[in-house]
């Protein structure tokens, strides 16, 4: 560990929130240095990344749903886990190079946040992909633990801290105490499922076909989990499934809220199940400490309200909820010695 720490002075060690929708990279002393979509553009039928391996992230996101027949813009992670190993490796390699630079002799150590519910095989896949992408040593930390650290919760104290991290592919719910997870639920439901619910609603109700980016825009602009003081409307353009021609309609926040009911109900169920499994003393702590929410899904209007109504607890959205996990991985990296008993890591060459 001493040699590892010395080498760390000559490399730019980093924490990575490897998300289904977005990848964030945090570096000690610099904060979030990269925030890009988890998207890669390749030649169709191959794993050849376009633009000499540079068609990743923001560049590739612009291609989603707009590519010609010879190009595919793909997301190599699904439900928080790797679905395409080679493309994930190419994406990680691009992000690590972009942050670390090509000129440094010593490769970086990397902490990666992963869903708490993934299997040992899926964890190994993340480590292998990061190593091949250029990491010297790879450490894994469960997303709820990283989120709690990044949110500044007292997770090392003998009191209960509860976090609900609503990401693109998964929702992580955990109660933590004494630097460990006491009980947790990891479900493969998140922002992607909300987008899919919007797509299905528009197709079923209006015979209008829209892509994921436009559905996400609808969710952000007028989506809600609870009734609004002033309901909203929005124009949406897409392709008519009957005529095949472009068409524009006006939709309301009420109908989108109804469309989002199923994924929101799944998240509420995960939260209540976690509370039901908690030890009595930890459950009692939460009366005072409440529930903290983070991740992109926590920004949905009224999400804090519906969780509060379902549990009877106060619900607090953490500061800068989109970056809580990434910030937590960076703090974890800075304090590896303190966390070494709970670390899952790889040993590799310099």
Describe this structure in words.
This protein is of the alpha+beta class. The protein folds into 4 domains: 2-38 and 78-146 and 324-345, Nucleotidyltransferase, domain 5 (2-Layer Sandwich); 39-74, no CATH class; 152-189 and 266-319, Nucleotidyltransferase, domain 5 (2-Layer Sandwich), CATH 3.30.420; 191-261, ATPase, substrate binding domain, subdomain 4 (Actin, Chain A, domain 4), CATH 3.90.640. The chain is 39% helix and 25% strand. It has 14 helices and 18 strands. It has helices spanning 2-8, 50-53, 58-61, 85-100, 120-132, 143-150, 191-206, 212-222, 253-259, 261-277, 280-289, 303-311, 324-334, 336-339; strands at 14-18, 22-27, 31-37, 40-43, 71-74, 77-78, 81-82, 109-114, 137-142, 161-166, 171-177, 180-187, 208-209, 233-240, 246-252, 291-294, 315-317, 344-345. It has a 6-stranded mixed sheet, sandwiched between helices. It has a 5-stranded mixed sheet with strand order 12-11-10-16-17, with helices on both faces. It has a 3-stranded antiparallel sheet with strand order 13-14-15. Strand 11 and strand 12 (180-187) form a beta hairpin. The longest helix has 17 residues, at 261-277. The two termini are 13 Å apart. The model has no long low-confidence stretch (mean pLDDT 89).
